[in-house]
Structure formats: structure tokens, C-alpha cells
Model the fold of this input.
Amino acid sequence: MGRAAVTLLLLLPAAAPAPDEPADDHAFCRRVTLDLVGRPPAPDEIRAFVKSKDREKKIGELLASPEAALYHADLWMQWLLDHDFENRDFYRMNVAEFHAWLRGTFERPISETVRSLVAREGAAANFARKHLDGGEPPVKLAVLTARLFLGRDLKCAQCHDHPSQPLTQEDFWAFTAFFGGGRGGIQDHLGELRLEPRFLDGRRPEGNPLESLAGSIDPRAAIAERYWRLLMGRPRHPADLEAPETPRELLRAIVRTDEYRARKGPLKAMNSVQFMHAFAAVFDLEQAHRDMLQKALKNEKTLEIFKDEQVMRLFFHKWAKEMVFPKGHNPEEAPAAGTVRLALKLMNNQKVQNYVNTAWGTLRKVLARKVRAADRVEELFLTVIGRPPTKEERELFAAKDDDGFEDVFWALVNSPEFFYVS
Done:
């Protein structure tokens, strides 16, 4: 059976579940592993969980693992960098220092983390360093601070009064003034206004403006909404999610909700960090990534700023973002839905095609570990989409030779079940 035909026939619709029916063990294991540590579970992990069926234990193990703090740091790095960077940014900020600090905030009160980021305390000052560009007005820093920690989008008021919110252009520039002066002038070609710092509700700060701002921000609602959208793929978080103090506690609270555990619960595309790890896991690229880093470290022509593991990982994340989103698109502005580039690269890129080969990585290992055709198909299903095949799929994917298993692998990687977390 050809690859196109296999893809079209893959994943036949099942009977609609009841809205409050719990997710089955395979779906829950994949969902919670991706959402708490940022990668898909390995087949043996899935089997162990399905055997134990202990969801609380699984959640506890994932949240206690170093992978959870690493994933947390990766996500916050993307958010704080506004999902993009240029090479020159690495001359202004210390990525390794910043990433290490972010890992430590996984079990730190969110309010303390936000205060440090806004007040530019220690390693947290790398957030401001990334976005302060010479004599330019600190617009990006103001817009990101409002979006991330206040849950407000201010950018529309930079050049004119907001058309649908009680937010004037003066409000925008008075808030921006907290972050440092611009190039001066009453109003320049960027629309900058020179104003004294003022909170969005009209109050003026007491004492040091930046410290006053840092101490006044209550990020609980904005962060709870961000994490709810991240895990559930939809807005409007329950109010009680504003009570947990740390990211770890907040994640635990979300994955314990009935909405999250329901069979018809979350539905969202992988974020770029999840996609990078899923792509690397499915195609067995972890060693290749480590080899790339070692090669860069040993190359005398590699600039020192690029001999940093976290800088290298940022480039992997940027690649993943541009696979999942259109090039230049900010993930904050629209949900991921896959791209033409992603589809074409999976179908036509020679390097990717080489990964879908019995002599490479995942497929080679599966064929070596499993002898029976049915066991091989099941291992591929568990590896790529986190569940065993149905009876109908077992009959459909009755591969008899190497080409047949390549087709099965290719079809699974191109299926919606690989790209979406549900």
C-alpha cells in the first residue's frame, strides 16, 4: 500500500465519547507527559503506566523529574525572548545564566519570579538586556511585561488611542516610561511621547519607578490564564487556579481538573518546544543533537557565544517554531495549526526521508527489537502517537516487508495524532 493511501485511511473516526468520560490510559499518559516534561512518553513508559493506572503517581513522578524544570525553563525562555532572537542578542545577554535561573524558578513563587524579572535583579536582568536596544524606546519590554504579567495587549495604543479599550496613546507611553527613557523629543517619527511614568490605572509611582512597578504587579491571573491555555488549548481559566504559588503547583492543579482529565478535554497543536522534543524522539535525533554541540565546541572558528549548550538549544527551538508556525509568525498572535512548510518538509525533504528508513534510528531499533509484524506495528504506534493500533488499524497496517514498515512509520508521523495533543 502506498504512503498516500495509508495516510488517507489512517485513524478512522470512532464513536463520539460522552463529554465527561475520562481519557483512556494511553491518551492520558501521552497528554500529561507532553504537558509536564515537554516530550512524548517512550513505549516502555506507556506500558508501565497502563499496567499501574496510577495517575497521581505518574503526575508526581513527572513533576519531580529534572525534565519538568528544564521544560519550564525552555517555555519561559521562549516567552521572555518573545519567541525570537538575533545573533546580536547573545552579546547583550547571558543565555546559560538566564536558563539556569529559570530552571530554579520552577518551585519558586511566581510573584517573586515576576518581581525579579521586572526589577532586573541578578540573572533575571537578562530579560531586560535582551529587549533594550541602544537608544530605542523600551517598547518591546513594556509590551511584553504587560502581556506576560498583566494579561494585557498594549501594542495597539503605541501610535494612537486604542479603538476598543479605554487605553490612550498617553497611557501607553506613560507605562513605557517605567522601563527607561527613549531618545527624547516631544513626539518623534515612532510616535514616542515623553511622559512621566504612570500606572495603567492612572496612579503615579512612589520612589524608584521600576521598583514601584515590580512591587505592584499581581501576575496570578495572567499566569494562570497562560498555563490554562498552554495545557487546555482554550481560554478562560477557573478562578481557583490563581491560588497556587509556584509553576509546579499550578501545573499540578490544572492536570487534576476534570476538564483536563476528560476524554474530550484538551485539544491543541504541540507548542514549538514540544514539537522539537517529539521530532527528536520519534526520529531518534538526541545523539545527533549532542554531536552537533560537540562539533561546535571543538571548532576553533565557532565564536565563544555560540559554544553554549543553551544557545544551541535555542536554535533548535527556533527551527521547531518555524516548522509549526509560518516564518516570522509570533505564536502569541495565533494558535499553531501546522504549516505548508511542515507538510512539505515531512513529505519531500531528503534528510527527513532518510529518517523514515529501516537503516536509521527509530525504525531500525523497532525492527531489531520486535520480530512479529504485529508487535512491530504496535511499537511504531506507541512510539509516534502514544497508543496501540485498533483492530481495524492492525488489519490495515499489515506490513510484510521493510517498505511496508517505512510506510507505516511515515503515515503515523504525518497523522494529526502526532502533531496534536489531545
Q: What stands out?
A: Residues 3-21+270-421 form one domain. Confidence is low (pLDDT under 50) at residues 4-17, 182-187. The radius of gyration is 24 Å.
